[in-house]
Specification:
heterotrimer; A alpha/beta (305); B alpha/beta (140); C alpha/beta (546); B: 140 residues; alpha/beta; Rossmann fold; five-stranded parallel sheet; 5 helices; globular; C: alpha/beta; nine-stranded parallel sheet; 22 helices; 9 strands
Chain lengths: 305, 140, 546
């Protein structure tokens, strides 16, 4: 009864049905299989998944808001997955990325879903990947995954994207240094937001130098875009850059390679998710003396039937 | 191993034009620190926008804060908007500068509970938790 | 040892001053008939004293902006008021003027503050609630009916559409036959704190700053006695900041406005004397007194060292104060009268130029007439009975006060330096730095209350069961319908061709770099509504999204 209701809602692209479906999968509900199996795989294959990451304060959400507006003007249905960190202490989270996108709240063709990292042992890729599939399956042809590019888990979900962009802004100094190592390498597009602020030129020059250095054989040259998201400036150029990267990835086969890697990552994450409860149960029941190396105990535990 | 506690999702919103969000932000943070996932939609939202966000985010409860005195029209408007969006089962809690004699009529219009200045935050958190529990219980 | 030459010089200037404008009384004496000294100074005046404390009316203005302070004239007792319709508010203003209020302070409803007419969908439920609804010049005429605008000074809490309300005020003055060069008052006109603390923004920062500098320019030429801005820490504090943050963020905003005006080609010493400030008076008496003194000194130094202002008036931080709304409790509301008295005292001991005292019932609703009177009486008791107004800056030289004044100044400067480093206030707002600082302070403060580490009398300690409920003022829900109807009449009766022409001119002006004020003034005179004017500007400038 419940499952039929949700599946029908999902089929009808009813906002509540989509939202419930994402929650159930996120909570690893028994209905997850049915929900995910009901999705039209071809829609998932066709959708473009755009990752937007960058340090806090760079203007990711405002930029996302502007990108949504542009894609909507092209008649495309847009899904957004906005990921925020959970508090390591309480497990709670404040999910505030939506604030900047509230202008689209009444547009049924913009589906925004906030998601907390939930300090999962893995699992974030599984949850975000499933949400992405549900959004694609319910007709979103563009899906934006927005995340603060700091922790490892956030890095991982960016790997779900077909195209990754890194947003930076002048005046964020130290954060950028810290990010250079990891994210600059995975970024297809470097966005210098707040391009009207002092320091933007220098930052852009830095980025361009890095972009040139970082040309790797498997992908086209990293593009640098300048935007003033708060005023909607540079968004057309950014969209053109996204199109160009997408086209070149499709032509070179890079898109297919990334999808395959992402698929494997999701499978791994789900496998861990699925096995976790039984392990937890085993540890709970297991009469062990907590001596010796935990690694050995773990090996023994897994060997148990 | 501790049993993983259910993580509830709630939305904190400010309908109307009043920009005083100190209370709303405090409640949002206090709920986070009590283990809730809190979608905060910022100031100056229409009831319809709040309802649409509550649906998309699949929250189990909505908390509204208002200090301008417009609660008698805006709180019930959020309840109506949720019903129109097929989400009349999501409980709505209200807070702000609200005269005692308005609380009864607000409850009659579908507001689950109303909290005024000076209410201990633990009481408010407990109210959100029980509102979430009954909403989720009603789902199955 | 003789008097320090600087002291002698100050006394000479004072004597000249006194012959021109004598003090309130010929003699200030205590109950025993003994003279109360105008200014107490240390036995030995040294360089350190001169550099950090000095004399009232002189750089660095730690002891006040006038040499005689309240012996010359009391602060302006200015009660913020306004609700429902223009004619209802007009009655309240005339009541206040009859009871000894010396300046008006207009509260506008939220639709007016955000540039929506009363019939706009977003205005539903909000019309006339937290202030008076003003849709067009017709409402403004009613609001100041039988109040001669050459005789009162009027402060208007209006920000994003400040230029429009100022234009309406000037138009009403003209209709009354008052030359607009004689109108006195203040528009709040401080958009930056709206982005971080108060929320009634309309346009993005850049065009907002243009509107502000356009009013600076226009006022310098047309209304020289009007304060063009009230740079407000009040709401930053209400949003939860500490005293240091209040000073730092407010002065940082001030720096931003000064820079914007300079960038727009204005002459520093032409506009700087018309900048005014607005602070919060909270309950920590000694910290608040020190805060006001520190803010005054820090601003003088900023204006001198950073901007090289020449005129003394450009260096002076003149400010309005309001007691802290956030400290009022809904429990045992009479306790609020005591809180307000302590807070008001801090403002007076800190040298404020004008003061609003909150009413005891404001944690419950808009204040009743009785509560407003008690609030005003609180100021009058401080002025006439407490004796603190009989001498200048009586707490100077207190080890504690001077140390705290120094500390607040140092910490605030450090915070301003951080904002400078982050690319200035606008950048610090956009990346949320300022908002986060305020939020964290607010959270910690509230947590202390929740945990009982900070006692709030009647809330988390000394509680009683309260049976009786005080009478509350309620805005008649019919106000909204009535306002919508009169707006409709205005739209029908005016010459719509004139309106359209004026709005088209405004729109063209917005696209150019010309001053917007003349076109706004022309538009309000055609009875174009606030909402229509803001709509034109929204189309041209876009809207800010928080």
């Amino acid at each position: 009864m419940k499952s039929e209701h949700i599946l029908k809602g999902l089929r009808d692209r009813d906002p509540r049905g989509i939202a419930r479906a994402i929650s159930l999968v996120e909570e690893n509900d028994p209905l997850s299989d049915e929900i995910l199996a009901s999705l039209d795989d071809s829609l998932v294959d066709q959708a473009m998944v755009l990752g937007i990451t960058g340090p806090p304060g760079a203007g990711k959400s405002t930029l996302t808001d502007r990108i949504i507006t542009k894609y909507r003007s092209q008649g495309r249905r847009v899904g957004v997955i906005a990921v925020d960190p959970s508090s390591p202490i309480s497990g709670g989270a404040i999910l505030g990325d939506r604030i900047r996108m509230m202008g689209h709240a009444l547009d049924h063709d913009v589906v925004v879903r906030s998601m907390a990292t939930r300090g999962r042992l893995g699992g974030l890729c599984a949850a975000a990947g499933a949400a992405m599939r549900i959004l694609a399956g319910s007709g979103c042809s563009v899906i934006i995954i927005e995340t603060v590019g700091v922790g490892q888990s956030e890095m991982d979900i960016i790997r779900l994207a077909d195209i990754t962009s890194l947003v930076l802004a002048p005046g964020l100094g130290d954060d950028i240094q810290a990010m250079k190592a990891g994210l600059l390498e995975v970024a297809d597009i470097l966005i210098v937001n707040k391009a009207d602020c002092a320091g933007a030129e220098t930052l852009a020059m830095d980025m361009e130098a890095i972009a040139r250095e970082g040309v790797r054989k498997e992908k086209v040259e990293t593009k640098v875009c300048m935007t003033v998201a708060s005023e909607g400036k540079g968004i057309n150029e950014l969209l053109a850059a996204i199109e160009a990267v997408d086209a070149s990835h499709r032509e070179s086969g890079e898109r297919r390679i990334r999808r395959e890697k992402a698929y494997d990552l999701e499978v791994l994450d789900w496998a861990l998710e699925l096995i976790k409860p039984s392990i937890i149960e085993k540890i709970g029941k297991w009469d062990h003396d907590r001596k010796g190396a935990p690694r050995l105990q773990a090996a023994r535990l897994l060997a148990q039937e | 191993m501790p049993e993983q506690k259910k993580t509830y999702r709630v939305l904190i919103g400010k309908p109307g034009l009043d920009g005083h969000d100190r209370g709303a932000k405090f409640i949002a943070r206090a709920l986070r620190d009590a283990g809730f996932e809190v979608v905060y939609t910022g100031i100056r939202r229409t009831p319809e926008e709040i309802a649409a966000a509550a649906v998309q985010e699949d929250v189990s409860a909505v908390g509204l804060s208002l200090l301008s005195g417009a609660h008698m029209s805006l709180f019930p408007a959020v309840v109506r908007a949720l019903r129109n969006a097929g989400a009349g089962d999501i409980p709505v809690l209200g807070g702000g500068i609200i005269p005692d004699e308005d609380i009864g009529p607000l409850k009659d219009s579908g507001i689950n509970a109303v909290y005024t200045p000076g209410t201990p935050v633990d009481k408010i958190i407990a109210a959100f938790r029980s509102a979430c529990e009954s909403q989720e219980a009603g789902r199955t | 040892m003789g008097k320090h030459p600087e002291y002698i010089d100050w006394e000479k200037e004072l004597a000249k001053n006194l012959s021109r404008c004598p003090e309130r009384k010929e003699k200030f004496t205590n109950h025993g008939g003994e003279d109360i000294p105008r200014l107490a100074v240390p036995d030995q005046i040294d360089e350190r004293y001169l550099e950090n404390i000095g004399f009232p009316g002189r750089y660095p203005y730690t002891r006040g902006v006038q040499p005689t302070m309240y012996r010359g004239r009391f602060w302006t007792m200015r009660q913020y008021a306004g609700f429902s319709t223009a004619s209802e508010s007009n009655k309240r203003y005339r009541y206040l003027l009859e009871h000894g209020t010396t300046g008006l302070s207009v509260a506008f409803d939220l639709p007016t503050q955000i540039g929506y007419d009363s019939d706009h969908p977003m205005a539903a439920g909000e019309v006339g609630k937290v202030g008076v609804a003003i849709d067009s010049l017709a409402d403004m005429e009613l609001l100041f009916d039988r109040i001669p605008l050459d005789k009162v000074s009027t402060s208007m809490t209006i920000n994003a559409p400040a230029a429009i309300l100022l234009a309406m005020y000037a138009a009403v003055a003209e209709k009354q036959g008052v030359e607009i060069s004689r109108i006195r008052g203040t528009i709040q006109n401080d958009i930056l704190k709206e982005y971080v603390a108060r929320g009634t923004y309309i346009f993005p920062p850049k065009p907002s700053l243009r509107l502000i500098t356009d009013t600076f320019k226009w006022c310098t030429e047309h209304t020289p006695e009007f304060n063009t801005i009230s740079i407000s820490g009040y709401h930053i504090r209400e949003a939860g900041s500490t005293a240091v943050q209040e000073v730092a963020f407010t002065l940082a905003n001030g720096i931003t406005y000064v820079q914007a005006a300079l960038d727009a080609g204005l002459e520093l010493d032409n506009f700087a004397p018309r900048l005014s400030f607005f602070f919060n008076a909270s309950s920590d008496l000694l910290e608040e007194i020190s805060k006001f003194r520190a803010a005054r000194r820090l601003w003088a130094r900023i204006m001198k060292d950073r901007f090289h202002a020449k005129k003394p008036a450009s260096l002076m931080l003149r400010f309005h104060t309001q007691t802290a709304g956030y400290t009022l409790t809904a429990q045992q509301i009479d306790n609020n009268i005591v809180r307000v008295a302590i807070q008001a005292l801090s403002a007076v001991l800190g040298g404020t130029q004008s003061l609003h005292t909150n009413s005891r019932d404001e944690a419950l609703s808009l204040p009743t007439e009785d509560s407003v009177r008690t609030a005003l009486r609180t100021q009058q008791v401080i002025a006439h009975e407490s004796g603190v107004a009989n001498t200048v800056d009586p707490l100077a030289g207190s080890y504690f006060i001077e140390e705290l004044t120094d500390r607040i100044e140092v910490q605030a400067s450090e915070l301003i330096a951080k904002i400078d480093k982050a690319g200035g206030v606008v950048a610090a707002i956009e990346d949320g730095f300022i908002q986060r600082q305020i939020e964290n302070s607010a959270y910690e403060y509230q947590q202390e209350i929740e945990k009982g580490e900070r006692i709030i009398v009647g809330v988390n300690e000394f509680k009683i069961d309260e049976q009786t409920k005080p009478p509350l003022l309620r805005v008649n829900p019919e106000v909204e319908n009535g306002q919508v109807l009169s707006l409709k009449t205005v739209r029908e009766e005016r010459d719509n061709n004139n309106v359209e022409e004026a709005l088209a001119n405004l729109s063209a002006c917005a696209r150019s770099s010309s001053n917007l004020m003349p076109e706004i003034l022309a538009a309000v005179k055609t009875y174009a509504t606030l909402g229509e004017i803001c709509h034109v500007l929204r189309e041209e400038f876009g809207e800010y999204r928080g």
